[in-house]
Amino acid sequence: MPRALVIGAGIAGPATALFLTRAGWDVEVFEAADSPDPYGGLFLNVATNGLAVLAQLGLRERLLTDAHRASRMVMLSGTGRTLGEVPNGPARDLERGSVIVRRAWLHQVIREAATAAGIPFRSGARLASIEETPTSVHARFADGSTAEGDILIGADGIHSLTRRWIDPSAPVPRYSGLVGTGGIARIDGLQATPDAQHFVFGARSFFGYLVRHDGTAYWFANLTMPEPPRGSLTGVSSAEWLIELRDLHSDDPSPVPQILAGTDEELTGYPIYHLAGVRSWSRGRVVAVGDAVHAASPSSGQGASLALEDAITLARCLRDRPDRATAFADYQAVRAPRAEAVVRYARRIDAQKRVTKSRLGIAIRDWMMPRFLKNAADDTRNDWLYNHEIPWERPVEGAAAKQPQTGG
Length: 408
Ligand SMILES: Cc1cc2nc3c(=O)[nH]c(=O)nc-3n(C[C@H](O)[C@H](O)[C@H](O)COP(=O)(O)OP(=O)(O)OC[C@H]3O[C@@H](n4cnc5c(N)ncnc54)[C@H](O)[C@@H]3O)c2cc1C
Description:
Layout: E1 3-7, H1 12-22, E2 26-30, E3 43-46, H2 48-56, H3 60-64, E4 68-69, E5 72-76, E6 82-87, E7 99-102, H4 103-116, E8 121-122, E9 127-132, E10 137-141, E11 146-149, E12 151-154, H5 161-166, E13 174-186, E14 196-201, E15 206-211, E16 216-224, H6 238-248, H7 256-261, E17 270-274, E18 282-283, E19 286-288, H8 303-320, H9 324-353, H10 359-372, H11 383-386
Parallel strand pairs: 1-2, 1-12, 2-8, 5-14, 12-19
Antiparallel strand pairs: 3-7, 4-7, 5-6, 9-10, 10-11, 13-16, 13-17, 14-15, 15-16, 18-19
The structure holds flavin-adenine dinucleotide.
The site of flavin-adenine dinucleotide (FAD) has 35 residues, from helix 1, strand 3 and helix 8.
């Protein structure tokens, strides 16, 4: 049985392991951290297309047992005026819309399934170097241990070592101009926001929230600021974040100040990056998936879903192609145009989120947006994001017959 070493137990890693096991591979997953996600206390959007991949793993319904449906995105001005709505899923099909879940829950659902499938995980295994021989690939970990496989799959996230091994001149992530933070808080007296996320173009910072039926608020803020030096945000305490956020959002419409007043949990700040233009997704026996080769900022709501799409696509290519090189080449040929289109989409949204100090700029945006979003309920412009199905059972098509992409 061919053996695959998967580096990284975020989203792409365990999902790839599950699909590959189905395709007859022996797989082991290696994770640097003891707990796989440093942002485990936060939440994310799993889009219709990501849910479709989870359905093929039999995990969609389980994920939905603790998910908030968010098939609409409502935009508000800094004065609380509704600027318009955008579907967070295929237009005119809200039932298939995207959901918001706790990141830790998504990890748990995928990870438990992988463990149940007999896939071994090694925590505290930080990949330090890769060495390839004519017959195998060797991973060396920071603790001195090693592992050997026929292929190595880098699912090691946006600061991927695998990407650099594949191509030392690969592009590095580019800062978006935004720093994110957020949390989950139980606050009395908040009105539920069924089926919708709300986004506020605050005067001094961008804010997003939803309120579940039990009054739990899921919220985030995106602060416009120069790129913080790597690691510097870890020195900012939760109390300092809250002072800053309460000040930045003090003039914003209800319930933004109430959410921040009622928040008292640990806050983490994270600079938001994009990664695009990675020319080589594989070299020899090594290939990469997910944020390691393309990262769309959280604004797209697509990072996790793209990682899931990569997982199923790579496994299908390895199942259906006659050799490794063709499988890796076809995997990239099929996936890269779509991933790049999503990153471009995310960049456009990030540009809108960055705070403008120009009163004229704000006035123009608040005038334009309602006109631009007038027919949002029927807006099919983003259907290319959501109506993207990758059937596991169907043989992988020729790379030349790529799946359709748009999105500029
Ligand atoms: C705060 C935040 C909010 C987000 N919101 C959304 C959203 O709403 N919707 C959405 O779709 N996406 C969102 N994203 C993006 C999404 O989280 C990523 O796109 C997704 O997690 C990518 O999955 P991945 O498996 O490729 O990488 P990751 O989930 O980053 O996993 C990489 C794993 O590799 C491990 N690793 C790294 N280096 C090594 C090494 N050398 N050796 C071993 N292991 C290693 C890491 O510890 C990590 O566990 C958000 C991201 C952040 C940070």
